[in-house]
């Protein structure tokens, strides 16, 4: 029965391999500060972190862009480093800076983290998932998410956002066995985190490996492909039929090896991936999601609509989900988002 219900959602049908004209659409970071109603909810919560851990307000901000734009999928409102807090690493947010953590840089540091209280600490997030699912209409799918383990490791080790990932890369190169223990802990945590989201009602999950493109090919295979393959195979075994979208942002030609070797069900491409290449190399392997440059959404007009039409023309004949190539930018005019949705769905919408 649940299969029949799910198969009615256009987004899930595409992820199972059916082409759709027009394609389903949602946008990465579709909930956020570009929306006045988000800013109001965040002010009510008092801080970004309080918002993430408040199931009433977090489910509300997840649903805001669905109500406003009618997207085909909602994505859980949370943030990528939260599971690190679940493992016992202190996490804070400073305005304009993003996440700030106490860095973990050695095996001795790593031993301070652990799994025993992991799911309890993150319980409000699973309650958010239940509330979102209850608030969605029959056509809108719910996406859960986690960071890719390499990206999660960069936040854990650098202590926040980074430009060159010096500490993470050098730990991996100097002490591969010690670094592998960190990746193993993060893999187990991610598996439990995503399983709990699925049990709470997520119908699909996306792995955001935002900094995958900063590794050389050898390290990419070791710290992106291999752990992702492990997580994908275990999630598939535990939750058959729940699609997994991979996003190794910036991976360039390594996207192909990622799709072939990880077993992801669909692939999110960044704006740097040429459409012809994606159509030829990736779409025969699995559904593709992407990849409008978020700056085009800020600028609007023909810079946005012509590029969106080209994406639909070149990728829309096979299974394809319209999305950006990276998250929505802070100064995006909401009217441009509405216009993009009309442009992708066509005049009948
Ligand atoms: O897509 C959605 O609407 C769901 C929510 C979501 C957020 N972060 C909310 C958020 C998702 C899926 C993420 C993922 C995330 N978080 C990633 C992977 C995707 C990517 O962008 O590469 C990463 C790297 C992070 C880490 C992170 N969180 C950074 C670097 C920052 C600061 C940058 C910024 O935009 O301020 C955040 C904060 C954050 N995460 C905000 C939101 C809405 C802004 C916080 C605020 O309201 O002040």
Give the number of helices.
18
Q: Largest sheet, described in full?
A: 7 strands, parallel
Spatial strand arrangement across the major sheet:
1-4-5-6-7-8-9
**Arithmetic mean of pLDDT:** 96
Radius of gyration: 19 Å
Unreliable residue stretches? none
Q: Summarize the amount of helix as a percent range.
A: 40-55%
* Element string (H = helix, E = strand): HHHHHEHEEHHHEHHHEHEHEHEHHEH
Number of strands: 9
How is the secondary structure organized here?
Elements: H1 2-7, H2 10-15, H3 36-45, H4 48-52, H5 55-69, E1 73-75, H6 82-86, E2 91-94, E3 98-101, H7 107-110, H8 118-121, H9 123-135, E4 141-147, H10 149-158, H11 166-174, H12 176-200, E5 204-209, H13 217-238, E6 244-248, H14 254-262, E7 266-268, H15 275-282, E8 288-292, H16 294-299, H17 301-315, E9 320-324, H18 334-345
Parallel strand pairs: 1-4, 4-5, 5-6, 6-7, 7-8, 8-9
Antiparallel strand pairs: 2-3
Helix pairs in contact: 3-5, 5-9, 10-11, 10-12, 11-12, 12-13, 13-14, 17-18
Short description:
This protein is of the alpha/beta class and 349 residues long. Helices cover 53% and strands 12% of the residues.
């Amino acid at each position: 029965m649940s299969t029949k219900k799910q198969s009615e959602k256009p987004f899930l049908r595409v992820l199972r391999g059916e082409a759709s004209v027009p394609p389903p659409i949602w946008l990465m970071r579709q909930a956020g500060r570009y929306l006045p109603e988000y800013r109001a909810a965040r002010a009510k919560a008092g801080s970004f972190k309080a918002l993430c851990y408040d199931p009433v307000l977090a489910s509300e901000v997840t649903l805001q862009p669905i109500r406003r734009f009618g997207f085909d999928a909602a994505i859980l409102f949370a943030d990528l480093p939260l599971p690190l807090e679940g493992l016992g690493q202190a996490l804070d947010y400073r305005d304009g800076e993003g996440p700030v953590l106490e860095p973990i840089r050695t095996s001795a540091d790593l031993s301070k983290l652990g799994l025993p209280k992991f799911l309890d600490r993150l319980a409000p997030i699973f309650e958010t998932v239940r509330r979102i699912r209850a608030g969605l209409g029959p056509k809108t799918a719910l996406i859960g998410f986690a960071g890719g383990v390499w990206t999660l490791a960069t936040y854990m080790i650098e202590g926040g956002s980074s430009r060159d990932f010096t500490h993470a890369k050098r730990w991996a190169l100097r002490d591969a066995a010690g670094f592998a223990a960190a990746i193993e802990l993060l893999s187990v945590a991610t598996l439990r985190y995503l399983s709990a989201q699925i049990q709470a009602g997520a119908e699909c999950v996306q792995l955001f490996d935002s900094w995958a493109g900063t590794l050389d090919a050898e390290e990419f295979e070791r710290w992106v492909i291999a752990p992702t393959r492990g997580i994908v195979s275990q999630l598939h075994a535990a939750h058959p039929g729940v699609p997994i979208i991979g996003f190794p942002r910036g991976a360039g030609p390594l996207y192909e090896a990622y799709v072939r070797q990880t077993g992801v069900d669909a692939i999110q491409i960044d704006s740097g991936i040429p459409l012809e290449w994606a159509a030829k190399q990736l779409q025969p392997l699995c559904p593709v999601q992407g990849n409008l440059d978020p700056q085009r959404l800020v600028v609007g007009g023909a810079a946005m609509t012509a590029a969106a039409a080209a994406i639909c023309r070149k990728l829309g004949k096979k299974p394809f989900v319209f999305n950006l190539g990276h998250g929505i930018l802070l100064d995006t005019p909401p009217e441009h988002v509405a216009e993009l949705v009309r442009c992708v769905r066509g005049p009948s919408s």
